[in-house]
């Protein structure tokens, strides 16, 4: 029993909430005391850049993404980097929604503590789909990626784990490594990464899924841009530190 979860808005603001007293009851559960309010958060994912918690906001389940301090960096530099990346990620998520990519709604951004509070999107990771659903998911990921690229955004972490199928529609959920860039070479890096992920996590159906992804990507960017980006993918694969998957 985790008990009743109080909404974050019960605290005066997100900064006060995060500055509360932390207690640990289990490896994946955190309890925060803020005045008379007790907030329970469940750790969903630990990453190199930050941690993802399941919590509540305005009586709805929500995601709180925190960016970790890096002890090996100069404190002032670390704070600046984390703040910039927090603002950039929140901005890209909102911007992507503006041109039709399904992403979580942003509720609050705390630049002081480098956190983003956002909508929790229920569903199944595309990574965990199978058969025709997985193929359809890859078509949608390709279309999403193409839409991002066409609007000057490189995702930066294009894997089947960063997309969720929700009511037959695919949501992009993690833009932590995203960049604003119009360079086709950067966009080709996105494609190369996704191809590599397919070759490691979906070995048996890799060729089919890659073809489905390209189908969706081409539908978003058009034939001319598609051919240019694919050329850059080939160039990347031709370099010594990369191995061609197929």
Structure commentary:
Strands 1-2-3-4-5-7-6 form a seven-stranded antiparallel sheet. Mean pLDDT is 85; it is low at 1-17 and 33-38. The protein has helices at residues 14-18, 75-98, 131-150, 184-201, 206-221, 223-238, and strands at residues 21-26, 29-34, 37-46, 50-57, 60-67, 106-110, 115-119, 124-125, 153-154, 163-166, 169-172, 179-180. It is globular and about 45 Å long. It contains six helices and twelve strands. The longest helix is centred in the middle third of the chain and has 24 residues, at 75-98. With 246 residues, the protein is of the alpha+beta class. Helices cover 40% and strands 25% of the residues.
Secondary structure topology:
Layout: H1 14-18, E1 21-26, E2 29-34, E3 37-46, E4 50-57, E5 60-67, H2 75-98, E6 106-110, E7 115-119, E8 124-125, H3 131-150, E9 153-154, E10 163-166, E11 169-172, E12 179-180, H4 184-201, H5 206-221, H6 223-238
Antiparallel strand pairs: 1-2, 2-3, 3-4, 4-5, 5-7, 6-7, 8-10, 9-12, 10-11
């Amino acid at each position: 029993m985790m008990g009743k979860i109080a909404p974050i808005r019960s605290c005066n603001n997100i900064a006060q909430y995060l500055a509360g007293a932390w207690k640990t009851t289990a490896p994946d559960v955190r309890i925060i005391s803020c005045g008379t309010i007790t907030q329970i958060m469940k750790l969903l994912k630990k990453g190199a850049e930050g941690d993802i918690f399941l919590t509540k906001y305005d009586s709805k389940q929500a995601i709180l993404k925190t960016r970790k301090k890096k002890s090996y960096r100069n404190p002032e530099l670390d704070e600046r980097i984390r703040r910039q990346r927090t603002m950039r990620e929140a901005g890209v998520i909102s911007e992507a929604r503006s041109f039709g990519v399904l992403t979580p709604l942003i509720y609050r951004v705390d630049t002081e503590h480098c956190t983003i509070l956002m909508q929790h999107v229920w569903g199944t990771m595309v990574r965990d789909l199978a058969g025709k659903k997985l193929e359809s998911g890859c078509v949608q990921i390709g279309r999403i990626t193409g839409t991002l690229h066409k609007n000057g955004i490189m995702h930066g972490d294009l894997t089947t784990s960063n997309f969720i199928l929700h009511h037959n529609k695919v949501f992009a959920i993690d833009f932590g490594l995203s960049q604003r860039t119009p360079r086709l070479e950067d966009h080709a890096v996105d494609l190369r990464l996704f191809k590599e992920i397919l070759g490691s996590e979906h070995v048996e159906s890799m060729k089919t899924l890659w073809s489905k992804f390209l189908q969706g990507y081409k539908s978003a960017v058009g034939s001319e841009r598609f051919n240019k980006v694919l050329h850059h993918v080939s160039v990347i694969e031709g370099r010594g530190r990369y191995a061609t998957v197929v």
